UniProtKB/TrEMBL annotation:
A matching Pfam family: UPF0102
Family membership noted in the UniProt record: Belongs to the UPF0102 family.
Species name: Lutibacter maritimus
Protein name as annotated: UPF0102 protein SAMN04488006_1281
Molecular functions (GO terms): endonuclease activity; nucleic acid binding
Family matches, as HAMAP family: UPF0102 (MF_00048)
Alphabetical UniProt keywords: Endonuclease, Hydrolase, Nuclease
Length: 119
């Protein structure tokens, strides 16, 4: 596996652990609909958190969250619309980004709630 794929997989594991420690119930991992892949779908206090995980080894080219573009947002919104309808859910939906930056042997985690409001 390529190094960037390994880093991405590690980032998703860190994000899952972080969410579980913060009382989120993980409903789905890597859920797919058409061209979209939703990294994590989690539930906490009646809010469905749609979580995009971005992991980087450096901030040289920008922060991890800077790599979520309009196309990705559009795909995620379409996918979650399908998810909510297909599961017949009556929940508030929130789009989050968990940005993870590798800093030597540790990882800095930033949980950006309602992240797409700023795009």
């Amino acid at each position: 596996m390529a190094t960037h794929n390994e880093l991405g997989t590690k980032g998703e594991e860190i994000a899952l652990d972080f969410l579980q420690k913060n009382n989120y119930k993980i409903l789905e991992k890597n859920w797919r609909f058409k061209k979209a892949e939703v990294d994590i779908i989690a539930l906490k206090k009646g809010i469905l958190a749609v979580v995009e995980v971005k992991t980087r080894s450096s901030d040289y080219f920008g922060n991890p969250q800077d790599f979520v573009n309009q196309k990705k947002i559009q795909l995620l919104v379409e996918a979650i619309n399908e998810y909510v309808i297909s599961k017949n859910l009556d929940v508030e939906v929130r789009f989050d980004i968990i940005a993870i930056l590798k800093n030597k042997d540790k990882f800095d985690i930033q949980h950006l709630k309602d992240a797409f409001l700023y795009f």
